[in-house]
Amino acid sequence: MVSNKKFKIFILVFSLLAAMFSYYAWQIFKTPNFEVEKKPFALLIPKGSTYESVLDTLEKHKLIRDELSFRFLAKVFNYPARVKPGRYLIYETTGNWELIRKLRNGSQDALKITISNIRLKEDLAGKLGRQLAYDSATIYHLLDSSTIVEPLGFTKETIPCLFIPDTYEVYWTTTFDDFLVKMKKSYDRFWTEKRIQEAKALGLTPTEVGILASIVYGESKESSEQARIAGVYWNRLQVNMPLQADPTIVFAWKDFTIKRVTGRYTAINSPFNTYRLSGLPPGPISIPNPKVMDKVLQLEKHDYLYFCAKEDFSGFHNFAVSYPEHLQNAAKYQKALDEYQIK
Length: 343
Fold this sequence. Notes:
Blueprint: H1 2-30, E1 41-45, H2 51-60, H3 67-76, E2 86-90, H4 96-105, E3 111-115, H5 121-129, H6 136-143, H7 146-149, E4 166-170, H8 176-190, H9 193-201, H10 206-219, H11 223-238, H12 246-253, H13 263-266, H14 290-297, E5 306-309, E6 317-320, H15 323-339
Antiparallel strand pairs: 1-2, 3-4, 5-6
Helix pairs in contact: 5-6, 10-11, 10-14, 11-14
């Protein structure tokens, strides 16, 4: 009878201890253990990092609530010997085991890079440098290197045409060569055989379409008249007439605050000065918008050689076949600029 009572007490104590251990183990494994607000924290682990340097980063940002439990579990699962570089997101609900398993397996969280209407190559390098494991100066140097860009089919001036505006998922540790390969695949997907043949019918290469599209977009954000503007520039190219595109002058000066392109600005000595030089400039003046490239490929066939912004500042333009007609349109616009004292 006594033995039976002792056995029951033993079972009760064992059950209590097992429950307490299970509860503690559950806390160590599953309970959120990181001071993270609603926005997840991106833990960046560079190549060559050690377990201690990872801990230093976590401590520096005061992320760990219970460091002892994290260290214990990390050693139990041999994380100190399996540190892998990458970008790992920590959420307010993340527990020790979830994070340690992610870190030791190298299960990175992809980041999203949105490439849109970027004007300058240095701006592109800056945007990429803020998200990839390369500084902007290094990226700019790579994009400005003939050794890097020519195998992709571009020059230092035309390389922005490689980047098709979109949102891309990449890993923080992605090499820049691999990133460019990803961009080239996107470029090749856009440039279908149909689009290539449409460009050829206009006597243009895909890169030239990108350059022209960047100028058209610089002239007008109104999609309804972009094909018509593209037609004006195409007509000028056919007769070897300078494009005289104000956006290229602004680009040459790299001063995007210019509101009124005057003779002072068009006197600049630059390969992008389309007032002095005939033909397309050596590269795009922004990363070409794919929708505008399609507008170029489907440009309007007409007799217009001139266009000028409307005097109502609506964003639309007046088009003209003859130069005298164009001068009348230009005079109305210049008068409006004067009235509003736009220099």
